[in-house]
Amino acid sequence: MTSDLGPYGIRTSDPGPYGIRPVPPHDGTLRAGPLPEESAAALDCLQTGLALLADHHHGRGTHLRLGVRPALRPRPAAPLPTVEASAADRLAEARRLLGLRVSRRHRVRTGRGLPPGPGPYYAVADAYHLPWVPYHGQRHMEHSFVVEYGAGRATVHDAYHNDTPWGGARPGAWTLPPPRLAALLAETGAALYTLEPVPPDAWSTGPTGTAEEPTDPAAVLRYVGAYRDHPDRAAAHDRLNLEVWLGVRAWRLYALRTGSAEAAGLAERWRRLSERVYLAARRTARGKDEPPGLFEEFTALLLADPAAAAAPAHPAEDGPGAREGRPPAGQGAEGPAERAERAVREALAAVLRLPPGEPADGRPFSSVPGFNSFRMVDILEHVESALGIEVPAGELTAGALRDAGTLRDLALRHLTAPAGAAGGGR
Question: Which among 76, 66, 20 has a CA at the least distance from the CA of 46?
């Protein structure tokens, strides 16, 4: 990526067919400015636009009222049940939790133009058609942002923060001529909503962000069972990837609102599960076996009580200097241990752009800037290719993929396995 690339990879020197250019995030009339980064990283792509408008109308920090304690409420969908909310669901939540009600809805069609300015309007459109998001031309999904316009210029505010297989989405603002905005929104049949503030005494949830109803254990077992028993394993893991990602976001937001260390620990457990689920999705898409234990952990997280949900401490043997297979100091010719070490370090350098020796053994990959589940899969595949091995799904546990040392030890076991042993000598 070169220096003239703005957020989402839009070139500042090449605004594209719609004349889109990045502008400072305070550009426009939104009174509260951009969301804090930790909030943007805890909201889904339909909540971010509502969060911007909640802070605009009711004051900075109002968006945290979305952080109610998560409870499982899946809805039927094809091919699998889902907890993913629709735009209608999120707008209903905005009425109850944020004090915002819909007073007008305008569907943008070719020839109809935009509703009267200046806005701001809550916009929902297909991300596949939006040039400033990494889903552009890649995946169809509902996506929200805020638009306002006047004096010959329109501004788009998008607070979404996420890492995707097609690049990183980061909050930003963009400007373009209003007719170009109208053409872009008409292309995807976008909807613009006028949201008006509601007095705070009409809001429904208290300061603790309590869920509206508890999680039903029987519903959890039915929901998890649908994914565990689905015959198309690649499709099941592809969809499960989204379901777990939504769990990560929901618990992060609840932890932000309440300040609960236990909820933050639970969010971290969800994040670690999301890495393993993405790895499973990549492997099953290629016809390989899935790692074990995913659905047991998924069930446990759905039933977890945040009052006792702090992330468990890693055992001492996961720390520096406590594992076998470490390259002996001063050894001459390169042996299997050095080959495994070199493969891991080259993978980390290639994928995470890290200098030799970083991160140190024992430092979790999750603490490295730029690391995410996509990068973990890239690192593993780089190591497998370099050493000519294939690690069986049953060994792809969170502990084995935790840091440089655990990954090296995993690779070394298969590099030195007898010919014909599972995962060795390929």
Answer: 66
Q: 77: which residues sit within 8 A by CB, 6+ positions away?
A: 84
Bridging pattern class, strands 100-107 and 21-23? unpaired
Report the distance separating Cα 80 and Cα 214, nearest Å: 22
The pTM for the full model equals 0.76
Per residue in 297-344, pLDDT (tens digit) is 999 999 987 665 444 433 333 332 333 333 333 334 568 888 888 888
DSSP 64: G
Beta-ladder partners of 142:
126
β 142-150/153-158 pair status: antiparallel
138-175 pLDDT tens trace = 999 999 999 999 888 999 999 999 999 888 999 999 99
Residue type, 302: L
Which residue bears the tokens 């979790």? 364
Amino acid symbol at 87 = A
C-beta of residue 28 within 8 angstroms of C-beta of residue 121: no
CB 406 within 8 A of CB 314: no
Query: Residue 198 carries which side chain, given as an amino acid letter?
Result: V
Q: Please enumerate in sequence order all residues whose Cβ is within 8 A of that of 4, keeping only pairs 6 or more positions apart, or say none.
A: 11, 12, 13
DSSP 86-153: PHHHHHHHIIIII-EEEEEEEE--TTT-PPSSS--EEEEEEGGG-TTSTTTTT---EEEEEEEEETTE
